[in-house]
Amino acid sequence: xxxxxxxxxxxxxxxxxxxxxxxxxxxxxxxxxxxxxxxxxxxxxxxxxxxxxxxxxxxxxxxxxxxxxxxxxxxxxxxxxxxxxxxxxxxxxxxxx
Length: 97
Prior knowledge:
Elements: H1 2-49, H2 54-69, H3 74-85
Helix pairs in contact: 1-2, 1-3, 2-3
């Protein structure tokens, strides 16, 4: 009898862990998608202006770091690198760093 109870408890715990693990993956995917969307939005805004201020770069770095840690794809990295090459003021030349 105790074996059946223990098996039921363990089975329930395994099911709960699997459900939580799946939800965690979905949450991470959603966060990554939102970060990518924000990076893309910042990219579009900076490209329209033709420059990325220091504040813009701080914001982009703040968005990009967790995006990259979550396994963000090369599209977000490409946009991030393009923004980094923009001048930091209107009329300045592109950064070559």
